[in-house]
């Protein structure tokens, strides 16, 4: 009997932790439109069936901003970005990079990264994600 | 024979800025009465009222009637983010085009001075264990953890994404766009801010969301604007002076954002604006080259750049060159935001979509004083509210 592995829960349900952390989109079975939230019907073609698809864990920065002024309780500065993962756009923070415009650039290669966000009263660990420089 | 066109008979914006002594309905009344006076008509002549006030609790139209005249006409209280004013205007256009009335009043008002950052709201923690909530099964607020949800950050990414597609953008370029609008505002006595700012001042000001510093963000302020619209047939029965100052609404268009890949990740403010512009040019029978001035939705300096392209003021992908050519300065070939724009004139949200129409009308009537664009005959007013809704109106001087 090994030690019990602490339970983990992802920040969002489209972050899947096992076997390796990756993002999963809901893809419309009719037109292929991808959504990270649960839709009633497809916003593009109105079909009503979706299947889960794994999203590439590497990508490039298609846009970014460095937020230095945010709502109360949101730590700043942070780098917010749109990451193009093999044709699917993902919204995420950039991590393991300085929040400095000279350290981030459009087209920068990045890879998915996960990290703990804290534990709740039952000891369950929350896991967040971001994208870190790939090189 | 009436053409079916709808005209602006009277229109006015209040002074924008900090108006601590005026309440919301008071500002709305000030704009509405000024628009009625400008058109030489009264509430008795109005067949419909459309009114917008985004930050209020609803019912601004009826509250306004209590202050300026309760005649029992239908009221449409409208809310469409930053396109609320344009939506009120368009509601009256539709009522007149439908033949339900021959005159109507559109009003937009906002008390926004000191409102701070817009766009993100915190969620209450009501459990000491992680509870997935909502359509993303989130266990915490996502703003700041999964990108940004606030307006400056969102629109910063809109401008940077344009840079990713076409190249040529940097901090200084966006700051120069802001420099233009602040310079333009020095000629606008109704602007919330009317001081020129140097490039250095703009770039060295407080960074809000790179590359937008504070003066590159729309100015939260108080203000209202209102317009009286009239049918072509009714206008023909009015005095020559009223007819001479009337401005034709050559196009009135409202669009929403059609599905585009990625629009759930970064709101697509481009496609719906381009769609609205295309429809508007078709309706009006004009091309972008026919425009003498444009008031576009520069909620952030980064947004102004992409809308040069979306409104087809330049070839696709050519917004950076368009700006660098000097075209959108007031002495350029396509003056953009000669009012000072949202960055300097200010952005009392629901008022903006009527105030920008007022600006264009002011020039078409030849009444813009020091900032008059000489000989202006055709102008375009554009707003976009995230969510999204886009309003485009093309205005033409009376023949």
Describe this structure in words.
Chain A has 135 residues and is mostly beta strands. Chain A has one domain. Chain A is built from no helices and ten strands. In chain A, a hairpin with a 5-residue loop joins strand 9 and strand 10. The termini of chain A are far apart. In chain B, a hairpin with a 1-residue loop joins strand 5 and strand 6. In chain B, the strands form two sheets. Chain B has a nine-stranded mixed beta sheet with strand order 3-2-4-7-1-8-11-10-9, sandwiched between helices. The two termini of chain B are 16 Å apart. Helix content of chain B is 34%, strand content 17%. The longest helix of chain B has 16 residues, at 24-39. Chains A and B meet through strand 4, strand 6, strand 7, strand 8 and strand 10 of A and helix 4 and strand 5 of B. Strand 6 of chain A pairs antiparallel with strand 5 (207-210) of chain B, so a sheet runs across the interface.
SS content category of chain A: mainly beta
Task: Indicate how many domains the architecture of chain A comprises.
Answer: 1
Largest sheet of chain B: 9 strands, mixed
| Major β-sheet strand ordering of chain A | 1-10-9-6-7-8
Largest binding interface between chains: A-B, 53 and 47 residues
The H/E string of chain A reads EEEEEEEEEE
Q: What is the straight-line distance between the termini of chain A?
A: 40 Å
Question: Spans of chain B of 5+ residues with little confidence (pLDDT < 50)?
Answer: none
Helix-strand layout with pairing:
The complex is a heterodimer of chains A (135) and B (399).
Chain A: E1 8-10, E2 15-16, E3 22-28, E4 34-35, E5 50-54, E6 58-67, E7 78-85, E8 88-94, E9 109-119, E10 125-133
Parallel strand pairs in A: 1-10
Antiparallel strand pairs in A: 2-3, 3-4, 3-5, 6-7, 6-9, 7-8, 9-10
Chain B: E1 6-13, H1 24-39, E2 49-52, H2 60-68, E3 75-78, H3 84-97, E4 103-110, H4 151-166, H5 171-185, H6 199-204, E5 207-210, E6 212-213, E7 223-231, H7 232-235, H8 240-245, E8 247-256, H9 271-284, E9 293-295, H10 301-310, H11 319-324, H12 341-344, H13 349-364, E10 378-385, E11 389-397
């Amino acid at each position: 009997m090994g030690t019990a592995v602490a339970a983990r829960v992802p920040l969002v349900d489209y972050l899947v932790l096992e076997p390796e952390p990756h993002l999963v989109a809901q893809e419309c079975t009719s037109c292929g439109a991808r959504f990270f939230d649960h839709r009633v019907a497809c916003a593009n073609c109105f079909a009503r069936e979706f299947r889960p698809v794994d999203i590439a864990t590497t990508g490039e920065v298609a846009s970014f901003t460095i937020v230095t002024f945010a709502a109360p309780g949101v730590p700043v500065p942070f780098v917010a970005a749109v990451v193009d993962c093999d044709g699917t756009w993902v919204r995420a923070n950039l991590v393991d990079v300085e929040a400095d415009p000279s350290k981030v650039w459009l087209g920068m290669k990045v890879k998915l990264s996960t990290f703990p966000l804290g534990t709740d009263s039952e000891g369950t660990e929350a896991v967040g994600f971001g994208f870190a420089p790939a090189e | 024979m009436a053409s079916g066109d709808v005209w602006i008979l009277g229109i006015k914006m209040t002074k924008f800025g900090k108006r601590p002594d005026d309440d919301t309905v008071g500002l709305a009344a000030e704009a509405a009465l000024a628009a009625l006076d400008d058109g030489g008509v009264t509430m008795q002549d109005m067949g419909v009222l459309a009114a917008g006030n985004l930050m209020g609790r609803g019912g601004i139209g009826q509250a306004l009637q209590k202050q300026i005249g309760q005649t029992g006409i239908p009221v449409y209280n409208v809310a469409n983010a930053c396109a609320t004013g344009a939506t009120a205007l368009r509601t009256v256009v539709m009522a007149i085009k439908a033949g339900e009335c021959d005159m109507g009043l559109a009003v937009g008002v906002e008390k926004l001075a000191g409102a701070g950052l817009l766009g993100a709201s915190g969620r209450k923690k009501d459990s000491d264990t992680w509870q997935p909530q909502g359509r993303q099964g989130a266990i915490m607020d996502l703003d700041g953890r999964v990108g940004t949800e606030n307006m400056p950050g969102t629109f910063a990414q809109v401008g940077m994404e344009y840079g990713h597609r076409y190249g040529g953008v940097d901090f200084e370029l966006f700051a120069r766009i802001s420099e233009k609008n602040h310079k333009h505002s020095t000629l606008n006595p109704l602007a919330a801010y009317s001081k020129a700012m140097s490039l250095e001042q703009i770039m060295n000001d407080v960074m809000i969301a790179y590359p937008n510093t504070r003066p590159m963000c729309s100015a939260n302020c108080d203000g209202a604007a209102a317009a009286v619209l009239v049918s072509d047939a009714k206008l023909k029965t009015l005095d020559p002076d009223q007819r001479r100052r009337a401005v034709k609404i050559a196009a009135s268009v409202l669009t929403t954002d059609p599905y585009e890949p990625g629009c759930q990740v970064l709101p697509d403010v481009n496609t719906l604006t381009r769609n609205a512009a295309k429809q508007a040019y078709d309706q009006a029978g004009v091309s972008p080259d026919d425009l003498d001035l444009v008031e576009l939705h520069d909620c952030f300096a980064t947004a102004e750049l992409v809308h040069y392209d979306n409104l087809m003021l330049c070839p696709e992908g050519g917004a950076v060159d368009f700006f660098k050519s000097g075209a959108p300065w007031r002495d350029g070939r396509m003056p953009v935001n000669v009012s000072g724009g949202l960055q300097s004139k200010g952005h009392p949200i629901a008022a903006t979509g009527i105030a920008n129409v007022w600006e264009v009308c002011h020039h078409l009537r030849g009444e813009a004083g020091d900032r008059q664009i000489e000989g202006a005959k055709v102008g375009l007013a554009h707003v976009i509210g995230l969510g999204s809704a886009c309003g485009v109106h093309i205005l033409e001087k009376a023949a």
